[in-house]
Design goal:
Helices cover about 60% and strands about 20% of the residues. The protein has about 180 residues and is an alpha+beta fold. The chain has 2 domains: about 40 residues; about 100 residues, Head domain of nucleotide exchange factor GrpE (Nucleotide Exchange Factor Grpe, Chain A, domain 2). The strands form 2 sheets. The protein has a 3-stranded antiparallel sheet. Strands 2-6-3 form a 3-stranded mixed sheet, with no helix packed on it. A hairpin with a 2-residue loop joins β4 and β5. It is rod-shaped and about 150 Å long. The protein starts with a helix and ends with a strand. The relative contact order is 0.08. The model has no long low-confidence stretch (mean pLDDT about 85). This is Protein GrpE. It is found in: Cytoplasm. Keywords: Chaperone, Cytoplasm, Stress response.
Length: about 180
């Protein structure tokens, strides 16, 4: 009887619908999920790389702007340095003229002109170095000799020509004589 049944089953022309195996279905889905996760990781890595690149570019731009602003400020500070350096000898000439006898009106006029010029230059950042009595500093003073004095040795005994700083930068050293013990 069993044999008959087997024969009937084998001989029957019925359409059999194939149902996918659950294991095969879950393995296929797992492979797709794995593939999608890998793609997601690649996309996230690319996104991270682009974001970091953008952030670096933004930081570089900010730093560039700061550097340019600093350079521009420095340029403005010293833009007139050449002109001011050329005007300093005019102050020396006024000082020299005042050392010689002249009518009081002329002397007063020279003092006023020199004062105006010095005020203009001071507003532009010029500072006068008058180091009398200070310790000799070769960074700011130029020694033109020594003088025997009662004062402390190695100090500035006499200022022959004042020095000048422009915005804290040495424009011309003070020309001085240094004290030497008798």
């Amino acid at each position: 009887m069993e044999e008959k049944r087997k024969e009937e089953i084998e001989n029957s022309d019925t359409d059999v619908e194939m149902v996918p195996d659950e294991e095969a279905l879950s393995a296929d889905a797992a492979a797709k999920v794995k593939k999608l996760r890998e793609e997601l990781q690649r996309c996230e890595a690319g996104k991270r790389e682009y974001l970091e690149g953008w952030q670096r570019a933004k930081a570089d731009l900010i730093n560039y702007k700061k550097d340019e602003a600093r350079r521009f400020d420095e340029f403005l500070k010293f833009a007139a340095e050449g002109l001011i350096a050329e005007l300093v000898p005019a102050l020396d000439s006024f000082d020299l003229a005042l050392q010689h006898g002249m009518p009081k009106d002329v002397e007063r006029g020279i003092v006023m002109i020199r004062s105006q010029l010095e005020d203009i230059l001071r507003r532009r950042g010029l500072e006068v170095l008058q180091p009398r009595g200070q310790k000799f500093d070769p960074a700011f003073h130029e020694s033109l000799g020594e003088v025997e004095t009662e004062g402390e040795e190695g100090t500035v005994a006499e200022v022959l020509q004042p020095g000048y700083l422009l915005q804290g930068k040495l424009l011309r050293p003070a020309r001085v004589k240094i004290a030497k013990k008798k």
